[in-house]
User: Fold this.
Amino acid sequence: MRISCGARENVHTPPTNTLWFKDFAYTGGIPYNATWPSFITPRLKTLRYFPLSTGPENCYNLDRVPNGHYSVRIFFGLVSDPNFENEPLFDVSVEGTLIYSLASGWSNHDDEQVFAEALVYLTDRSVSLCFHSTGHGDPAVLSLEILQVDNKAYNFGPESSQGIILRTVKRLSCGAGKPKFDVDYSGDLWGGDRFWNPITTFGQGSDSAISTENGIKGSSISPNFYPEALYQTALRSTDRKPDLDYTLDVDANKNYSVWLHFAEIDPSVTGEGQRVFDISINGDVAFKDVDIVKMSGDRYSAIVLNKTIAVNGRTLTITLHPTRGSNVIINAIEVFEVIVAESKTFTDEVRALQTLKSGLQLPLRFGWNGDPCVPQQHPWSGADCQFDDQRSRWVIDGLGLGNQGLRGFLPKDISKLRHLQNLNLSGNSIRGGIPSSLGTIAGLEKLDLSYNFFNGSIPESLGQLSSLQILNLNGNSLSGQVPAALGGRLLHRASFNFTDNAGLCGIPGLRPCGPHLSTAGEIGVGVGVFIVFLLIVICSMCWWKRRQNILRAQRIAARDAPYAKARTHFARDVQLVRHHGHDQTRTAAENGPSLLS
Assistant:
């Protein structure tokens, strides 16, 4: 598969009419017009660049890729806009393993620096190609190629396995005059369409280029399927300087696999024993008494020698020294960096983080593309990783996303992060309920959901978290009774904070729990209380008014008391007098006429 980055339609490129598929729906980023940094760059008109605002990691994720061995090649491009930084520098990873870092000046070369290429085994029917920003411009990618090769291609011995990636450092076609791809050589498709850089001399006066039109036996065969034309040119040392030396700059303290190609195309050599030489790499003899005709079985027959070495310095030097005959010959050189593939993060945990990214509406600046833990030089922001030695996988043991402007809700798939020990989502705007599935993360020690908009009750399942030492749920809109199991944990030196949740009850520091009323019931109770209060006020006022009237009457009575008493005595005296007169009259009458009348 070949992909033209940023293209809206499938395109074909000359001179071989190569088909490139559009990259719609494969990734994010921004499509733009492209500038070709090199004449070996595919003649494609568009690229895709990834501004830092979309995150530090951006990836092409391709599914339904058959399992197997693949040559993966990525050509870089330049954005055709004078306002852009002309030469971005960034890192490239394949399946979570860092394979290449662009060096300053890459766009001024016409060799392997304008692309990254690696041989990698794909085992889960997908491939992830990621570009990691290093702060020097926005990564820009022109094309991707994922080409299947033989499963045994470039097998360099017992150490070669599915856990090994071979990154192309250099491919040289000795004696050739033009750069070519396998397709230009009419090579076999299973060769992976390799790029061969021409080299006409290892040093002025040290060698000469020779060529032949004779056919080469044993070239395009399994598993590497080298093109025949690769062996039809060569560099041959001179009598004045019989040794051939080639020096390549490499990264220090790494392992390199060196592949050397030979075919005896010199007409002056007609049989065995006429040209014998030793091959040294960085001063150590790698192959002794090499006789091309003897080893290949004939003239014009191809052989390939391979040696993998550790390089401590920054150069790799290949020396051919004749031991019989006056000079030496070589047709092609390949050098690969041997990279141990990174162990990846558990698939379930990666998917859980992707669900979390969507549910919490994670800002674009986080990126969160590819693998959260690898390459180790570029882990996801906010995710803490730990390596599981027993299962050789990475796990997520912490998430620190406090005060990051998160919104949305906390999905139940958070429970798939089963190795989580610390979860901090404080100071955001997360809504909805706390998922009960949190209670299944047995190793959770710290849970901080404070100052969000969580509502509903606290799940009973949180009481099952026997390792939980810190629980901050303050500053939310939670309601109901705090689970008894959590309340009991407060006696075991655990630090829990439930404050600023008006609806919570049931533990010291919170209100006691009572019958739960509906909103209408609470309104009814409030109205009733108000009416009772109003009646009490009215009755109190009436009592006070009546009491005031009584007191005033008593004061008036007290002031008029002497006058009232005098009148009372006078009236009594009058009455007594009257009564006394009556008594006397009645007595005379009762006694009859007076005797003196």
Q: What stands out?
A: The longest helix spans residues 519-559. Helices lie at 292-296, 347-359, 484-489, 519-559, 561-591.
